[in-house]
Design the sequence.
């Protein structure tokens, strides 16, 4: 093994990559990383790469693919490069197979210096001269030197986190030379596409004779755009797959809003759209808070879903931590622990009841933030930071008046839309500076407070009480039907919006039940968790029973799906659904409906809002609960195997598929 401290060594370069299948090619390059001591567990690393591939294809077009991931199995930031004469299908937007494959491996705890190196490399991949040199090289040592920034290759960008164009043409950087643009790029992992999109936009702006400054909100750190640069900009480009931080900075500017891959693949088009908007004049009031119609029109339902998902995603950690602590307190000290005095000044290190009271009171404190956090971050998703105060206060008032999580949703939407409207007000320059920090929070909190205290709070509280009473009174057929519905919702999008709606419904009912939850809310929570555990467990069982119907990559994912399903992480089924949705999703829905319906029929209860089998002591009728989960798992596995096997010839389990796919009907 050789290790000279570089991002890449000649041993990590394969100029004659033989496999014609993407999965096998990734395995071959991964084996080189293992041999060089850069990766400790090949299968674990490949599973992390596959999980990133499931989020979005990593084929860039022009014959380039950049599969990448953060992984606990990577010891140091590294890159393995392969050249394939036949080309590999990485689902590139132009349909061209990738002849140049760069596997970027980053450890979970990579330091900023190494991440900056990876970011600089990602930028250089947008330079045709650099990729052309990689294709022309005949010696692995030359390739390694090119990647590490040797003399034969172009120099990397000086500071990928900074918003400059270090090697663009002078016309793009000279003040006053042309239209002025600012941009923000971001992607889920913050390793590759963030910086590729930034570089592509810089080059596109230079070709268009425009000046641009790009803020990369990625893993290598982010240098915020100078407020003076934003103020002088004629238009804004947002190329992102995660929420742009501090979006309110761009209030009043024309905005082109697109995904990060659009920034990579059609940067010229985004720049042209931005320049057209700039030429058309100032944006409409509130334009910075909404996507520009010319770039990516969105239906109102899609925007609403995104706002609600943002609030739920920030709320879930409080639900999980608070719910588990409360359940642990009940398990140790019984339900009477809810009336125990404060542990402040009364804590006894040797007393079981003191520990039970501590867990309960800490969990109750976490639960106290659920609705304010839900409301606050719904408002934040709509109108950014300026709406956070009104959203949080509206959520707190919802708790005070008994409106619960429904009131939190309503207050968050009202706060966000109100602030979004206020952000578009045309005010004197002397007032503009204090609008986001004084005027908008003051007025929005007052208006939301009035609406929640006086107008909306009581009706919503009545609806919440009716919901709680309905859940508590469920029995027989009604309970089973609710379990079937919740099961279908949990499996339909495997962790997506509909899944989160069902989960929020159950967790919300649980948290509004007071210190001693009622039977209805406890059975609903049990049904939702059982239905959420079933899809990954069913797929794991299917890969174990008839592995020949699955690709090698799917069989590896199946091993991880056992643990994910047992831990109530429904997303463990996503890699299977992404590869074969028409067979996997209906099967998962059927199994989850069985699990949810049986759980409600058995009357099993759950005092914790998360945890899977690890909270089995907190489940009422645990044997029947496990029976429901097992039945759903078997149904999912059986249907998947039936649908995948229909009309397909039997293949020996150890047979190799020369085309690179095992008879699943979909490419790897």
Sequence:
């Amino acid at each position: 093994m050789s290790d000279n401290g570089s991002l890449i060594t000649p041993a990590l370069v394969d100029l004659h990559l033989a496999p014609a299948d993407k999965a096998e090619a990734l395995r071959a390059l991964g084996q080189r990383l293992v041999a060089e001591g850069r990766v400790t567990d090949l299968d674990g690393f490949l599973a992390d790469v596959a999980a990133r591939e499931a989020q979005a294809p990593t084929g860039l077009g022009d014959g380039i693919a950049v599969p990448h991931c953060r992984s606990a199995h990577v010891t140091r930031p590294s890159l393995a490069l392969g050249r394939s004469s036949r080309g590999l299908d990485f689902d590139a937007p132009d349909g061209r197979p990738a002849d140049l494959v760069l596997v970027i491996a980053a450890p979970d705890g990579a330091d900023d210096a190494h991440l900056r190196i990876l970011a600089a490399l990602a930028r250089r991949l947008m330079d045709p001269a650099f990729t052309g040199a990689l294709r022309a090289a005949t010696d692995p040592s030359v390739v390694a030197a090119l990647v590490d920034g040797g003399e034969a290759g172009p120099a990397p960008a000086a500071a990928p986190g900074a918003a400059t164009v270090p090697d663009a043409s002078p016309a793009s950087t000279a003040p006053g030379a042309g239209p002025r643009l600012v941009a923000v790029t971001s992607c889920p992992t913050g390793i590759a596409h963030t910086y590729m999109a930034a570089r592509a936009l810089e080059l596109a702006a230079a070709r268009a004779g425009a000046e641009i400054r790009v803020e990369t909100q990625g893993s290598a750190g982010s240098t915020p755009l100078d407020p003076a640069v934003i103020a002088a900009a004629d238009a804004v480009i947002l190329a992102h797959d995660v929420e742009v931080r501090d979006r309110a900075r761009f209030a009043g500017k024309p905005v082109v809003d697109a995904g990060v891959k659009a920034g990579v693949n059609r940067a010229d088009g985004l720049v042209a759209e931005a320049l057209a908007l700039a030429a058309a004049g100032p944006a409409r009031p509130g334009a910075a808070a909404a996507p520009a119609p010319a770039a990516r029109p969105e239906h109102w339902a899609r925007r609403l879903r995104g706002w609600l998902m943002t609030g739920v995603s920030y709320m879930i950690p409080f639900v999980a931590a608070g719910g588990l602590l409360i359940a642990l307190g009940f398990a140790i000290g019984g339900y009477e622990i809810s009336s125990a005095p404060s542990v402040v000044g009364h804590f006894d290190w040797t007393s079981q009841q003191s520990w039970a009271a501590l867990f309960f009171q800490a969990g109750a404190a976490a639960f106290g933030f659920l609705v304010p956090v839900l409301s606050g971050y719904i408002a934040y998703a709509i109108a950014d930071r300026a709406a956070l105060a009104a959203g949080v206060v509206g959520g707190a008032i919802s708790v005070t008046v008994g409106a619960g999580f429904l009131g939190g949703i309503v207050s968050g939407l009202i706060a966000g839309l109100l602030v979004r409207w206020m952000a578009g007000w045309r005010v004197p320059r002397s007032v503009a500076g204090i609008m986001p920090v004084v005027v908008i929070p003051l007025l929005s909190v007052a208006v939301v407070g009035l609406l929640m205290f006086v107008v909306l709070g009581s009706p919503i509280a009545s609806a919440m009480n009716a919901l709680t009473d309905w859940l508590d009174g469920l029995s027989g057929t009604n309970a089973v039907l609710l379990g079937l519905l919740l099961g279908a919702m949990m499996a339909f999008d495997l962790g997506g919006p509909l899944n989160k709606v069902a989960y929020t419904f159950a967790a919300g009912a649980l948290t509004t039940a007071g210190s001693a939850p009622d039977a209805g809310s406890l059975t609903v929570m049990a049904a939702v968790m059982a239905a959420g555990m079933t899809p990954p467990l069913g797929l794991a069982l299917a890969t174990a029973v008839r592995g020949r119907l699955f690709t090698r990559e799917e069989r590896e994912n199946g091993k991880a799906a056992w643990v994910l399903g047992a831990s109530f992480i429904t997303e463990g089924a996503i890699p299977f659904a992404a590869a074969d949705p028409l067979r996997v999703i209906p099967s998962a829905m059927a199994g989850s409906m069985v699990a949810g319906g049986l759980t409600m029929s058995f009357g099993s209860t759950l005092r914790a809002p998360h945890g899977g089998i690890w909270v089995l002591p907190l489940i009422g009728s645990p044997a029947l609960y496990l029976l429901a989960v097992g039945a759903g798992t078997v149904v999912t596995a059986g249907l998947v195997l039936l649908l995948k096997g229909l009309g397909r010839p039997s293949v020996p389990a150890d047979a190799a598929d020369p085309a690179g796919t095992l008879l699943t009907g979909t490419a790897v």
Q: What stands out?
A: Residues 186 and 194 are 5 Å apart (CA to CA). The longest strand covers residues 78-88. DSSP finds 24 helices and twelve strands in the chain. The chain has four domains: 10-111+120-147, 170-289, 300-470, 476-645.
